[in-house]
Write a structure and sequence with these properties.
By secondary structure, the protein is an alpha/beta fold. Helix content is 31%, strand content 20%. The chain has 2 domains: 218 residues, P-loop containing nucleotide triphosphate hydrolases (Rossmann fold); 153 residues, 2-Layer Sandwich (Nucleotidyltransferase, domain 5), CATH 3.30.420. The strands form 2 sheets. Strands 3-4-5-2-6-7-1-8 form an 8-stranded mixed beta sheet, sandwiched between helices. The chain has a 7-stranded mixed beta sheet with strand order 9-15-12-11-10-13-14. Helix 2 packs across helix 3, helix 10 crosses helix 12 and helix 11 crosses helix 12.
Length: 406
Amino acid sequence: MRLAEGVFKPTAVQKKALALLKGNAKHILLFGGSRSGKTTVLVVAIIYRACAYPMSRHLICRLRAKDAKSSVWHETLEPWLNRIVGVRRYKPNVHEGYIRLWNGSEIWIGGLGDKEQVDKILGHEYVTIYFNEVSQISYSAVTTAYSRLAMNVQGCRNKFFYDCNPASPMHWAYKIFIRKIEPRTDERLKKPELYVSAVLNPADNAENLAKDYITDILDNMPEKQRARFRDGLWVKPEGVVYDRFEESMILEADRMPKSYDRITGGQDFGLHIAAVKVGWKDGAVYVMSDHGGFNITTRTAVEAQTEKGWYDEGFVTFCDPAGGERIQEIPGGVKANNSVDAGIDYICALMERGKFFVAKSCSGVLGEIWDYARDENNQIIKVNDHYMDAMRYAVFSAASSGVVMG
């Protein structure tokens, strides 16, 4: 079959991004402002890879499957398939969540936010895995999917693609692609040359945008949103909940107390399971350690934590009240006080008084705390909040004597 020639006409910056995709790096991140052409570049690259390598399989995933289907499948993938290969040369299977091309190649689209979807899309092997909008996806979810980049297609180099509007400088993607350090340990990457990135901003894609999009919309956003969505900068998001949290509150192991007045735990359940361990000393709260996993059972998480000596001190763990019978699987597990606003206010007050600290080793908590935010309706954005919930359970439930208030 002959593909449509000259259909995709990349901008100058998109050409540089395409050069990265063709290079030797295994992991390629495109980040920058809104409507800068990041998704288009990566989707088109996947289409051409699927066409060039018959019987190959490719995955495009977001946090939520419905968002992947609406913003990637319908708004980007299908329109470009129509232009490049033609309407009659592919067949969508909406129920199963994939598109099959005339040459037997498949492009799967799904979400990493619910167990049924995860089991379906991670039940296959791929030559390309594209994580769309990784600012919303946890590092544990991404690394769980890593093992599925294992399909062997002659001549095709397996690749991971990523894109995002920048989050805070503490986000795992910033650490990996900009600072070239391992997110959990802050140690230098063993093979930094495998991780490359490029910035694409709306101004670079102006020829494909409405004339007033930048001047009338992006230029008039609040400062932090303008920095992220127009300028592609890594900054704390607008409406961040713990805006008083500073890097000075992150402590190395030798600066943490040697003993505590008491210890409490917090446990969040779900597809992303998260546990936080908190020490109390002279009226201050120290987040001592955290542990979590993606698409694992509560029992598996508890066994892993037990092996690490997590429960050696013997303490109460305040659990997500919606956990039901799973609470019984947690040593010392009881229902937490899930008063969200009161719990947040209490932790904010600790921060204001200089009574709140986090161990540098707590990668889960530190990976979420900078981006934990409210939307324009003052509602908590339920994305990457698993450690934040567990931390609140551990701190506020203990402070309020563990009384469940509703």
